[in-house]
Amino acid sequence: MSKQTDSTAEVLLEKKGGAGIITLNRPKALNALNLPMIQQIYPQIKTWEQDPETFLIIIKGAGGKAFCAGGDIRAITEAGKVGDKLIQDFFRGEYRLNNAVGTCKKPYVALIDGITMGGGVGVSVHGHFRVATEKTVFAMPETAIGLFPDVGGGYFLPRLSGKIGYYLALTGCRLKGRDVLRVGIATHFVESAKLPALEKDLIALKSPSKEKVADLLNSYHMKCTIDQEKEFALDEHLEKINSLFSANSMEEIVKKLKQDGSPFAMKQLETINKMSPTSLKLTLRQLREGASMSLQEVLQMEYRLSQACMKGHDFYEGVRAVLIDKDQSPKWKPAALEEVSDEFVDSCFKPLGNDDLKLGEETSASSLAVNTKQHISSAFKVAGF
Questions:
Q1: In whole angstroms, how far apart are CA 50 and each of 83, 93, 99?
Q2: What does residue 46 show for φ and ψ, rounded to 5 degrees?
Q3: DSSP string, 11-67
Q4: Which terminus in the chain has less CB density within 10 A, N or C?
Q5: Which terms does the record give in the GO molecular function aspect (predicted)?
Q6: CA–CA separation, 56 vs 67, rounded Å?
Q7: CA 160 to CA 188: how far, in whole Å?
Q8: Phi and psi at residue 21, in whole multiples of 5°?
Q9: 52-78 burial string, b = 16+ CB within 10 Å, else e?
């Protein structure tokens, strides 16, 4: 059993009692996932899944500030500029890991305390249990950097209630604390300070079933009164979100926002106008297609899109503007939605032949689609939807 407890390692893999514990350990980088971390976590999940002495898997982030703020975008950007194969290896590895989380046969508990974005969502949202706290900040902000909400975003986002997933994907809207539970991203809500006790109790469970894990999480969830009275931040806008983001094209969404003219609609319009037009069109189609696909099919589609983005202009320009120079004024090419042709969008979704993402033995988990839909809908029930 791998016991990597060297505190300087970027990911710590430990066995405590019947629990396998994964700690993302790059606190200075907000626990952003890089390829070496992915390459250690994936085989460890597979090993624990087969191990009769491991009953559940817990994943958490070190440092108290973030669970995981995303993938290591800087490394991917540098690799893409010089044509390094990291741009294939990283996305392949990351999506295989997302699929391993989604098909995991052992109860999988993600403690999403702090910032949880992009790649951090990918290693948590597809698992059985996601525990949010008052410190959780969720977002899929990829359209702002010329990418799209990947890591299975095309699977879980369109399955959220109404058009919330489309709204979150296109605008990169941030949700905090209990709101992460209310939309169905989290399954439970527990005070941040109680997580060490919860973890201890999870580890102490004797040969726990999913039901036993759920019972324990529910007991913590029920006792947590923090922010209980707080209204859901999107509550007053739900009706508008559902009608404005139900259009079949980005141009139509923009038209609806303009016609609506309310302060909320104008704010969304302003946000959307800053995003990469190419990313917006890819994202809308990704979610519309993903709504009726299995997680495996979605990840394969997203791998194709990732490679199209790596060959394009907007990803590098978005990373420059948002993360490197931080001038927040990317020069997108094309600069307008009307200039992003349907032919171009089609080309990004085309199969890659031998280079397509293959998910191997895990694709046999046909019950997955049903499971994740159940997780998400059960989260709605907890949240009172």
A1: 37, 20, 16
A2: -65, -40
A3: EEEEEETTEEEEEE--GGGTT-B-HHHHHHHHHHHHHHHH-TT--EEEEEESSSSEE
A4: N
A5: 3-hydroxyisobutyryl-CoA hydrolase activity
A6: 19
A7: 16
A8: -120, 125
A9: eebbbbbbbbbbebbbbbbbbbebbbe
Four-way CATH pick for 11-383: 1.10.3720.10, 3.90.226.10, 2.160.10.10, 3.30.565.10: 3.90.226.10
- What are the residue boundaries of the structural domains of the chain, listed by start? 11-383
Burial of 40 (0-12, 13-18, 19+ CB in 10 A): middle
What pLDDT is recorded for position 174? Answer: 98
Q: Go through 361-374 and write b for each residue having 16 or more CB atoms within 10 A of its CB, e for each that does not.
A: ebbebeebbebbee
Amino acid identity, position 57:
I
Question: Is the sign of the CA dihedral 9, 123, 185, 381 positive or negative?
Answer: negative
Q: Which of 159, 164, 193, 191 lies closest to 177 in space, CA to CA?
A: 191
Q: How many CB atoms lie within 10 A of CB 121?
A: 28
Q: Which residue has the tokens 């029920």?
A: 222
* Tens-place pLDDT, residues 81-138: 999 999 999 999 999 999 999 999 999 999 999 999 999 999 999 999 999 999 999 9
Measured between alpha carbons, how far is 137 from 114 in angstroms, rounded to an integer?
Answer: 6
